[in-house]
Amino acid sequence: MTSPSFSTSYSDTGLWGIHLVSENLMNLDDLIHFTLKLLQLKSRGPRASTT
Known about the structure:
Largest sheet: 2 strands, antiparallel
Distance between the termini: 30 Å
Structural class: alpha+beta
Low-confidence stretches: none
Strand content: 15-25%
Radius of gyration: 14 Å
Number of helices: 1
Mean pLDDT: 84
Helix content: 25-40%
Oligomer: single chain
Order of helices and strands: EEH
Strand order of the largest sheet: 1-2
Number of strands: 2
Shape: flat
């Protein structure tokens, strides 16, 4: 599995994303589930215990 990210800047906005690639077609739901879970954690910012 690979998951490179990309970022593109424009004058008034920006675009960030990830590109997920997996040869394990039987477990794509797990790949998406855990990716979304990590993105959700990142969107909340750092925890007080990690600073």
